[in-house]
Design brief:
Layout: E1 2-6, H1 11-22, E2 26-31, H2 39-49, E3 55-59, H3 65-75, E4 79-82, H4 91-94, H5 96-116, E5 121-127, H6 151-170, E6 174-179, E7 182-183, H7 192-201, E8 206-208, E9 215-216, E10 219-220, H8 221-233, E11 257-262, E12 268-269, H9 270-281, E13 287-289, H10 305-311, H11 319-333
Parallel strand pairs: 1-2, 1-4, 2-3, 4-5, 5-6, 6-11, 7-10, 8-13
Antiparallel strand pairs: 9-12
């Protein structure tokens, strides 16, 4: 198979691309290497990929209509895994237009590329943030998600709606994945584990929001990658049992469309997560206990039963193991 993987110099995308290449698939990567965070880290991820003969790197903005169209025409991917996006809940309060450019216009360009080039299956990144004000835990893809609390979340909700429309109109099989707090080696510097590790090792205090009264469905990147690739291999189908009188948000009766949660389904208290990190580093963190930030939510918890039933997804990495592996990578990468 020839896969288009967008965001291949990103955290999850680089892991996905490597696993596809190692099993013998060809990967065409799209990434703009933007400076949202340290480009040297993105370049280091890219350097890992360039050693594979089946890899092609294309540096391109998602919102470049003609550039994305030409990429599809030139490379004709069999399937697409769309992971590129403007990430970050908090940054969406500061720079909202970048979310519309990358996550809405950019996603339209990916849909158009799939439409006009016979792509057999599109798997794309949604987010647990779409659950917004929903307090019915664990979060299920069969719940309503009409109350996002950030523009980032709204952009991901819009992706799901756009995907369903294109799937219905043009019969493109599409699968959306709502990621839950992914962490691990080669992670993003703007995420909690990376920020905490850097601050603790530098002897600086860490910011603990909602005064530590938070829990997250922390999910190790290897488990995530296994689920992403299993979904790519399992092409979305129309749900023959779907009813317009009682519409199920996670499937469709008029389109080959599916949405899954992809998480660990074992939420962990933030203070426990910090405690595990302190043990791995051998240092105790000084903590700034702060109120909840705008756009954030106090808890996430994924119901992954559909993903387990449909593709055999089975996350197995404990927080203790996952955090230790991140710390080992961090010390090696930064020579600490």
């Amino acid at each position: 198979m020839k896969f288009l993987v967008t965001g291949h110099a990103g955290f999850i995308g680089s892991h996905v691309a490597i696993q596809l290449l190692e099993r013998g698939d060809e990967v065409v990567g799209l990434d703009n290497l933007n400076p949202y965070y340290d480009v040297r880290l993105k370049q280091a991820r890219l350097d890992r990929l360039t050693s594979y003969a089946g890899f092609t790197h294309c540096q391109l903005d998602l919102e470049d209509n003609e550039g994305v169209a030409e990429l599809f025409r030139a490379h004709k991917p069999d399937k697409a895994i769309h992971l590129a996006a403007q990430a970050g809940v908090r940054y969406s309060l500061e720079n909202p237009r970048s979310y519309i450019d990358s996550n809405v216009i950019g996603f339209l360009n990916i849909l158009e590329g799939c439409r006009h080039n016979g792509v057999k299956h599109l798997v794309y990144a949604s987010s647990s943030s779409v659950y917004g004000a929903n307090e019915n835990a664990p979060f299920s893809v069969h719940h309503n998600v009409d109350h996002p609390l950030s523009l980032y979340a709204a952009s991901k909700k819009s992706n799901e709606m756009m995907a369903h429309t294109y799937s219905h109109l043009f019969r493109i099989p599409v699968t959306g994945l709502r990621f839950f707090t992914v962490y691990g080696p080669w992670g993003r510097p703007d995420m909690a584990l990376f920020l905490f590790t850097k601050a603790i090792l530098e002897g600086r205090p860490i910011d603990v929001f909602n005064r530590g009264e938070m829990q997250r469905d922390f999910t190790f990147v290897d488990d995530i990658v296994d689920g992403v690739i299993a979904c790519a291999d399992n092409v979305a189908q129309v749900n023959e049992d779907w009813s317009g009188a009682a519409p199920d948000p996670g499937t469709s009766g008029v389109a080959p469309y599916k949405v899954y949660n992809i998480g660990n389904s074992q939420p962990v208290q933030l203070m426990k997560y910090i405690e595990v990190l302190e043990q791995c580093l051998g240092k105790t963190a000084e903590k700034n206990m702060l109120p909840m930030q705008p756009g954030d939510v106090p808890a996430t918890w994924a119901d992954v039963s559909d993903l387990k039933n449909d593709v055999g997804y089975q996350p197995s990495t404990t927080v203790e193991t996952g955090v230790a592996r991140f710390v080992e990578w961090y010390r090696d990468f930064y020579k600490l």
